[in-house]
Amino acid sequence: MTTGPHLAVALDAAGWHPAAWRAEDARPRELLTAAYWADLVREAESAALDFVTIEDTLGPRTDPFNPSRGGTDQVDGHLDAVLVAARVAPLTSRIGIVPTAVVTHTEPFHLSKAIATLDYVSSGRAGVRVRVAWTPEDNRLFGRRDIGVVDLADAKDGDLVSPLSELFDETADYVEVLRRLWDSWEDDAEIRDAATGRFVDRDKLHYIDFAGKWFSVKGPSITPRPPQGQPVVTSLAHAVIPYRLAARSADVVYITPLERAEAADTLAVVRHEQAVAGRERDTLHVFADLVVFLGETPQAARDHKARLDDWAGAEYASDTRVFVGTPAELADELLDLHAAGLSGFRLRPAAIPHDLNAITRALVPELRSRGAFRSDYEATTLRGLLGLGRPANRYAAV
Amino acid sequence: MGKPIKQVHLAAHFPGVNNTTVWSDPEAGSHIEFSSFVRLAQTAERAKFDFFFLAEGLRLREQGGQIYDLDVVGRPDTFTVLAALAAVTERLGLAGTINSTFNEPYEVARQFASLDHLSAGRAAWNVVTSWDAFTGENFRRGGFLPQDQRYERAQTFLDTALELFGSWRGDEVAADAATGVFLRDPAAGSFAHQDAHFDISGRFSVPRSPQGKPVILQAGDSDGGREFAAASADAIFSRHGTLEKGQAFYADVKGRLAKYGRRHDQLVVLPAATFVLGDTDAEAQERADVVRHQQYSGQTAIKLLEQLWNADLSDHDPDGPLPSFDPVVGENTISRGRASVRMHRDPLATAREYRALAEAKNLSIRELIIQVSGRQTFVGSAATVAARIDELVQADAADGFILVPYVTPGGLDEFADTVVPLLQERGVFRTEYTGPTLRDHLGLDGVPA
C-alpha cells in the first residue's frame, strides 16, 4: 500500500471552465446522455482514482465566479446527480461514486434511501456530497418556506446566529438523520425464519425518533442497512461555519486554499472544530480542491487556458486554487500539500476530456513513478479505499 | 369484417411488501441486492415486455403497534434502482411509483426528466397519493393533508410537473462551438405556477427529455381515481382481471375519456395478475394450491383477518371458525401503513359475506382467507394461460397485464419461456421491440413539442 494522497475528480458538464464545451474534443450535445457520464467515470476508474463527484444544483447552474454574459454562452441544463451516479454504477466496479445532493428543501428520508440504494447498486461504493441551497431563486423552485436573506459573508463568523448559520445547523440535523436511518436496520435483521414465519426480526429494526428544530423523522428506513453500513458523507467548505458542519457530520471535507499557508491554517481550524464536536477519534479526511489546466509543457498549459479564456471573454476565476502547468509540476504541488497534512485532493478538470485525461494518463503515472499513488484498487468499497473501515451500528446491542 | 386483433401489453412487477412473495421457497433470492432486480428486468426485456414496475413504501407497516414481520420487508429507492437498471437493459420501460404527497413537483419532475434522459426515453411514473399522519412522521411536512384533498393535490402536483416537463420545447440547445451559442433561448425552462397547493417559479434545469414527459400511470380504483386516470394517465392499473368485472371497469374508464377530449386508445388498462404454471392444467392447479397455502400461512391469515376485524385475534385458531364478535367499527387502529385496509370500506358487510361463505363451504379462517384474498391469478398450462390472456384482452376486459411472480427474482423465467412464445404464435404479442421508447411499446402518441 502506498502512502500518497487520495485522489478524486469533480465532474461537471464539459469541465469547470465556462467555455470548455467549445473545445474540439468536447461533447456538448451529449452532456445529458448516459454514455457521456459512463465514459467519464470509466476514464477515472482506469487510473484507480478514489472517487468521482458529480456536481448538481436545484436550479440552472449558477457560478458566481463566472457569470454568463448573455445567458446563452454557457452550458445550460443538467441532470439529477444521484440518478447519474446510479446510472453509471453498474458499468464500473471499483471507483467510488459521490453525487451532490441538495439538502435544503429536500427530504432526508428520501435521500437516505437513495444513497443506501446507490450503495447496493454499486456494491459498496456510494458517497454523497451534501450541499445547501441558499438563494431566493432556489427557494422559489420549492416555494415552501422563507429561509431569510442569506449573506455568505456570515459564514466567516462562527459566533453569529444568522440565516446562513441556521441553514448549516439544519444540514447537520439532516446528515444526522441520514446516518441514523442507515443504521436503523441492524445488519442481520433479515432472518427468514420459516419456523416462526418471520421474514425479519423486528427487534433489529429501530425507530430513529429524530426531533429537531426544523423537522422530525420517525424511521426506521424502508431500505436495509447498506453494504458499507455508512456511505461516505462529504461536503465543500470555504469558511468556519461550513468547516464546523464538516467537522460534525462528514467523512471528507473539500477545502479551497489559494496557497500552501492557507491550507495549513484551514486544516488547523477543521481539526479544532472536529475536537469541539467530539470527533477527534474519527477520521475526517481533508481534501483540497484545485481547478487544473494541464499541458505537456508549462507553455502548452498556459496556451490551453488562454484559449478557453479568449472564448469566454474573461479570465477564469474560481473559489479555489487554479493550477496551470504540467502534470509533473502538479505532482510536486500535490505532494507538497500532502506533506502539509492534507489527506488528498479533488481535482476539478477545467476542460473535459482534455484535463480529465491529463489527470488519468499523465498525473497518475507521474505520482506512481514517485511511489505516491496506488497502481490498482486495494479495496472493494469506497470506505475501504479511504481507510475508513466499516462502522459498527449505533443501535446494535453490544 | 370483425374487430381488429388487439396486441397484448405485458409488464413485470418486482413484488414489494406483501404475502404474494413466497420468501421461503428454495428458489427465492434477495429482495434488496441489485442482482435480483437485474434478473427480473432482464427476463422481462428478453420476453419483450413493455415495462418493469417498482412500487414504493415510505414507512414500515405496523400491526398491533409492532412492525409487521411476516412478509418481505425492506426495499430500495425507486428512482435509484430504475436509473441503475437503465444501465443493464436497452429497451424495457422503467416504471416507478412516486408519492405526490411527500414530495415536491420541482424535485420529482427533475428526477423523472433525468431518468428519461438516462434511459433514452423509457421512464414512467405511477402517481400515487397518501394522506396519513403515520407515513407523514417520516417527512418534514408530517401528515398534513385532509383525505378529501388527496386527489386534488395529486392532480395539481401532476399538472405542475407537466408544466415543468413542457417548459423546454426541445430545440433550445444549439451547442454551437463556432459561434459560442450554447442556448438559443435564454428563457428556456421558465415557469410560474400558482394554485391552492403550489406557488413556485423559476427555471426548470432539465431540457426536454426523449419522451417529452414520462409515461403517466395511475392505480386508484375509486371514482376519484378513475376520473384522475381518465383526465391525465397513459395507463391505469386495476384489480379487475376477471371477464365481467374487467369489462365493466374497462368500459367505465374508457367511457370517461371523451369528456377530456381523449381517444379510446390513449389509456391502456392493465390489471395486476399473478400466475402459476404447470405442464398440465391439473399440475398447475396442484402447484397453485401449494403456493396459496405458502402465501397464506395460519399466522398471515389471522393478521389479514385482524385488518378487517380491527381487533387483536391472536388468540384465535387459524384452523378454527371466524370470531364470534363483529368487526370493530370506526377508524382502523390495528393496522397502519397498509393500503389493503382501505379496501374494507364497510367492514360489517364484508364480515357478513365472510360468515356466509364460511358457513356454506365449512371453511376455517385460513381457508376462507385463501378464498377471498386471491387477486387475479392465471393458473394452468402455458397454452391455457396464453389463451386466457388473449381472450380477456380481445374481449376488452383489459389491454394487458402486470404480472407479479410469486418467487423473486426468477419467477418470471418460466412465463417468458413458455407463455410468451405462444402469445407470439397467436400474433398478439411482439417478437421484437418496434420503437426505442416506452411510449412506442404502449402504442401511445408522441408528445408534441
Write structural notes for this entry:
The complex is a heterodimer of chains A (398) and B (449). Chain A is α/β, with parallel strands linked by helices. In chain A, 34% of the residues lie in helices and 16% in strands. Chain A has eleven helices and 13 strands. The longest helix of chain A has 20 residues, at 163-182. Chain B is an alpha/beta fold and 449 residues long. Chain B contains 14 helices and 16 strands. Chain B has helices at 34-46, 78-85, 105-118, 133-136, 150-165, 223-232, 243-255, 281-295, 298-309, 347-361, 365-373, 382-394, 413-425, 438-441, and strands at residues 9-14, 51-54, 62-63, 66-67, 93-99, 123-128, 173-176, 181-183, 190-194, 199-203, 215-218, 235-238, 268-278, 335-336, 377-381, 400-403. In chain B, the strands form four sheets. Chain B has an eight-stranded parallel barrel, surrounded by seven helices. Chain B has a three-stranded antiparallel sheet with strand order 4-3-14. In chain B, helix 3 (105-118) packs across helix 5 (150-165) and helix 9 packs across helix 11 (365-373). The mean pLDDT of chain B is 92. Classes of the chains: A alpha/beta (398), B alpha/beta (449).
Give a brief outline of the structure.
Chain A is of the alpha/beta class and 398 residues long. The model of chain B has no long low-confidence stretch (mean pLDDT 92).
- Shape by Cα distribution of chain A: globular
**Beta-strand percentage of chain A?**
15-25%
Largest sheet of chain B: 8 strands, parallel, barrel
Helix content of chain B: 25-40%
Query: Which two chains touch over the largest interface?
Result: A-B, 79 and 73 residues
Q: Quickly give the structural class of chain A.
A: alpha/beta
Low-confidence stretches of chain A: none
Percent helix of chain A: 25-40%
- Annotation, overall tally of beta strands of chain A: 13
Lateral strand order in the biggest sheet of chain B? 1-2-5-6-11-12-13-16
| Rg of chain B, Å, rounded | 23 Å
Query: Strands across the major sheet of chain A, in which order?
Result: 1-2-3-4-9-10-11-13
